[in-house]
């Protein structure tokens, strides 16, 4: 039992350090500027793509991927707990994948730190999945807090907001 708690403590420490490093990198003005430029370019390309699809008459709600039909997108029951956290990690990862081609050298270093933090969160989720209910819920709250901090920092950097 003691080794599990030592492993959990070490994992929590590593997760906190990776998240803190990613947040620090997001506070760098050059990195924030690169992310802002990349985010604006991505948004413009997405608007153009949507406009092109609408003007050609191709766009329709049935264009949604099949996996959305059974997920929280159309489901009456929202995703909760483990599934919700996993979905948040995947959405943030997909967003970072879209930003990667648009960032410069310091932006790439920042993204690498964010990916490292996301991998630590994934690992924490895998460990939490097998915990008893009370411990799992506590782990989920801690993971959610770290993920929220990371999401907020990425969003602030993309919008060009100064850190709080």
Task: Write structural notes for this entry.
- It is a single chain.
- The radius of gyration is 18 Å and the shape is flat.
- Residues 62-66 and 68-77 have low confidence and may be disordered.
- The protein has six helices and no strands.
- By secondary structure, it is mainly alpha-helical.
- It has one domain (11-46, 79-159).
- The relative contact order is 0.17.
- It has helices at residues 2-26, 29-56, 67-70, 81-99, 105-129, 133-159.
- Helix 1 (2-26) runs antiparallel to helix 5 and helix 4 (81-99) runs parallel beside helix 6.
Task: Describe the global form.
Answer: flat
Strand content: under 5%
In sequence order, what are the helices and strands, one letter per element? HHHHHH
- The Rg value, from CA coordinates, equals 18 Å
Q: In whole angstroms, how far apart are the ends?
A: 40 Å
Largest beta-sheet details? none
- For the secondary structure, the number of strands is 0
Tell me roughly what share of residues is in helical segments: over 70%
Structural class by SSE content? mainly alpha
Number of helices, counting only DSSP H or I runs of 4 residues or more: 6
User: Please, how many domains?
Assistant: 1
What is the overall pLDDT average? 80
Question: Unreliable segments (pLDDT under 50, ≥5 consecutive)?
Answer: 62-66, 68-77
